[in-house]
Design brief:
Order of helices and strands: EHEEHEEEEEEH
Helix content: 10-25%
Radius of gyration: 15 Å
Strand content: 35-45%
Largest sheet: 9 strands, mixed
Mean pLDDT: 89
Number of strands: 9
Shape: globular
Number of domains: 1
Length: 145
């Protein structure tokens, strides 16, 4: 059974800002462009997250996009101790916006509660031309989208 993770994109008001932050940290991970997301604790349900799981990003109060999880790496630092790197595909996929309250760290997101994909993120795409997240959510709930 697939399980996803969700995490706050702290300090990012747009998906473009998240992309800009990550674009300078892209590495080759087993032949794929990937980005490592630092976290203190490795998920106990690691196997389920590796079965087509994604890391969903909460951007400016809404789940806005996701990246496919490629793996988990344990990192030891002499000063800071043990960390986990969640390795995700560098490509970002936009999702239908879904309001979400702030939280710390990362959380599990059951597959059945994950928002639907909206399409690939294209850097520099004008997010301002999109329907505002609240309006889009209202239209979706009304069955108009």
């Amino acid at each position: 059974m697939t399980v996803h993770l969700k995490k706050l994109a702290v300090g990012c008001k747009t998906i473009d800002a998240l992309y800009e932050r990550q674009s300078v940290r892209i590495v080759d991970y087993h032949g794929q462009d990937a980005v490592g997301i630092w976290t203190r604790h490795k998920p106990k349900r690691e196997g389920e997250a590796l079965e087509n799981g994604s890391l969903y990003w909460v951007v400016n109060g809404s789940i806005a996009c996701r990246q496919t999880i490629l793996g988990f790496e344990r990192v030891e630092d002499a000063e800071e101790g043990t960390f986990c790197l969640i390795m995700v595909e560098a490509a970002i996929i936009r999702t239908l916006p879904e309001k979400h309250r702030p939280f710390q760290g990362w959380r599990y997101l059951p597959a059945e509660k994950a928002p639907a994909d909206r399409g690939p993120f294209v850097p520099g795409e004008a997010e301002e031309q999109d329907i505002p997240a609240e309006m889009e959510e209202d239209l979706r709930q009304s069955g108009l989208l």
